[in-house]
Design goal:
With 372 residues, the protein is of the alpha+beta class. It is 34% helix and 21% strand. The chain starts with 25 loop residues before the first helix and ends with a helix. This is BioF2-like acetyltransferase domain-containing protein.
Length: 372
């Protein structure tokens, strides 16, 4: 199953979630009073109020910021930044529900990788996300390492820690033997046992191939397995349209395909490899749980081992990134946790106070990400 599907809240979409329980504070009272009054007025007035609070611009093209716009596209959607609907990923008190239904006030722009790792960071977030999207976003979140001191003075920034992202540093590794040296005694035994069962050409066929943009037939064949895996685990991160758009349009994708030889090459497990700079991210996955080989041949873990082999063999890859959550499983195969924090852009003091209050009182990271 997908690394971000293991827990339905184990991806960057779950980085901002709150419990719907208002706090008696001056900031909260002020917000609710303003909202209640606005709800009795025209929608236009309501929109104007919240826009003034968050500093949002509902028309992306009307931004008057002095930043120079580049003609070339910035970043890759779904890889260096993503846009998420607030209504689906943030729990707010009922009085605030109308906010997240209004055009221009209905989404979060997250500038980070889909694994919840850093993309541009505070120093380079402008370089990996289009200006129009940044200007229009009512809530913009930048992922970076903790304790960044040199924050952009144009805005106020509220910071809170997220779960660790688990990565493997393959710099200096010349062969898979260098990788196994990092493992515990039990980890090495598991590796050998899993690989022995997996590397049987009469039972399992596996290949690592490119996925050129526009590979309609291949993408269509992957969707049912992705969907069934998500359903079995309670949550599909991507809709069918999002899955197709990402796989058909994102450049540089690869596929790890694991097939059942006896079943005429029927797919058991697949995983989409996403490459960003010197990092390889095994991302969207699917496994046929009904096939007994999925368990007996440990196709999921062996798929990860195969990605490690790919990274070691490529001199331009320094990291394999498995994302957040499932600490025990990932550390057992040699991956280490690296801390990441979220930096929320606030355009004025009122928004800063609101975000600080809600983050302090309603953000419960232990309830969002499975990290035993």
């Amino acid at each position: 199953m997908a690394l971000l599907e293991i827990s339905k809240r184990a991806d960057s979409k779950a980085q901002l979630a709150f419990q719907a329980a208002p706090k008696e504070s001056d900031v909260w009272d002020r917000l609710c009073e303003d909202v209640s009054k606005s709800l009795r007025d025209k929608v236009s007035g309501f929109t104007g109020l919240f826009s003034s609070l968050v500093g949002s611009n509902s028309n992306p093209e009307s931004s008057t910021t002095s930043e120079t716009e580049h003609t070339a596209p910035k970043g890759i959607y779904g890889v260096t930044y993503q846009r998420y609907p607030i209504a689906s990923y943030v729990q707010l008190p009922p009085v605030l529900a109308p906010f997240v239904q209004l055009p221009g006030l209905d989404h979060i722009l997250l500038i980070g990788r889909p694994t919840a790792d850093v993309s541009g960071g505070m120093a380079g977030y402008r370089d990996v996300c289009p200006k129009a999207l940044r200007a229009a976003a009512p809530f913009l979140i930048v992922l970076d390492r903790p304790d960044i001191k040199d924050l952009e003075p144009k805005y106020r920034w509220v910071t809170f820690p997220l779960a660790e992202v688990f990565k493997l540093d393959v710099r200096g590794m010349k062969s898979i033997d260098d990788y196994t040296k990092l493992l515990s005694k039990k980890g090495r035994w598991n590796f050998k046992d899993r690989q022995k069962k997996f590397n049987n050409a009469k039972v399992i066929n596996h290949e690592y191939v490119d996925l050129p943009p526009g590979s309609t037939e291949m993408v269509a064949s992957l969707w049912p397995l992705y969907k069934s895996t998500g359903d079995a685990n309670g949550f599909c991160v991507l809709s069918e349209k999002e899955f197709a758009d990402f796989h058909l349009n994102t450049p540089g994708l690869t596929l790890m395909l694991i097939r059942d030889v006896a079943a005429e090459g029927k797919l058991i497990t697949f995983c989409t490899g996403v490459r960003v700079e010197d990092t390889l991210m095994p991302m969207w996955c699917g496994t046929d749980y009904e096939n007994p080989l999925a368990k007996s041949c440990s196709t999921y873990f062996n798929m990860l081992y195969e990605y490690v082999k790919v990274a070691i063999a490529d001199p331009e890859i320094n990291w394999v990134d498995l994302g957040a959550s499932r600490r025990q499983a990932k550390t057992s195969i040699g991956f280490q946790g690296y801390p990441v924090s979220a930096y929320i852009r606030c355009k004025n003091a009122i928004m800063e106070s609101i975000v600080e209050t809600m983050a302090a009182d309603y953000f419960k990271p232990s309830e969002l990400i499975a990290d035993p």
